[in-house]
Amino acid sequence: MKKIGFIGCGNMGGALARAVRSAGFENVILADLDTAKRDALAEDIGAVTADARTVAKECDYIFMGVKPQVLAKAFDGIKAELSENKDVVIVSMAAGVSIEKVKAYSGVDSVIRIMPNMPVSVGSGVVLAASENVTDEKKAEFSEIMSKSGIFDWLDEKLIDGASALSGCGPAFVYMFIEALADGAVACGLPRDKALLYAAGTLEGSAKAMLENGKHPEKLKDEVCSPAGSTIMGVKALEDGGFRSAAMNAVIEAYKRTKELG
């Protein structure tokens, strides 16, 4: 049975570890300098704990959940163990760091670069993946490992940074939109708890409907807007406020910063 290791159990590493366990993979090993955080996550999801060197020595897939700025240093501490683990696949989630850099840092040829987002923790996220020197068999196995994370998609690496500026950073933008919608409803007299519930449910349902019926969002928007009705006046208010431009610029600026981090 495959062993799946995590070095770094922060928000994203923890979310992915939950998704992996939800997919039915039992041999999950967690390592983190913050042992209290590591131990709490392990107890919560039914994983075991170890140090980074043990993970590097024993695991078939190793998720590196450390920040881009410290990735090279993290690999320095486990290079000897990785060199002895001939079939290991490194899974990097460091924003902006290319597969070539991960190979240079780690000394490992088989690398999968992923960009997940936070909703993977509830099985409704997006995980983008690119790979190099990974067999079709291992790619298929990795797809199964990620099967409970939500949308999982293989991409050419050149598209990863742009796509992750949308899906990786996008949840923060969505949360801001939910809060803004709720603020508007509160201004109209709705209690805060109900406003947040309705706003979140509206986004969830709207996205689910689009994914299931395959219609373009412009078409769906038009279906909601009746002539001289309430919705079209709300749409006009968003256009007057530069809503589309602001949303586009948020993704573009996130993309620029991702490239800088790499």
Strand order of the largest sheet: 3-2-1-4-5-6-7-8
Unreliable segments (pLDDT under 50, ≥5 consecutive)? none
Radius of gyration: 21 Å
Secondary structural class: alpha/beta
Cα end-to-end separation = 34 Å
Number of DSSP E strands: 8
**Main beta-sheet annotation:** 8 strands, mixed
Write up this protein.
α8 packs across α13 (243-261) and α9 crosses α10. With 262 residues, the protein is α/β, with parallel strands linked by helices. An 8-stranded mixed sheet has the order 3-2-1-4-5-6-7-8, with helices on both faces. The chain has helices at 11-22, 35-45, 52-58, 71-76, 79-84, 99-106, 136-145, 160-167, 170-187, 192-213, 217-224, 230-240, 243-261; strands at 4-7, 28-31, 48-49, 61-64, 89-92, 111-116, 125-132, 150-154. Helices cover 56% and strands 14% of the residues.
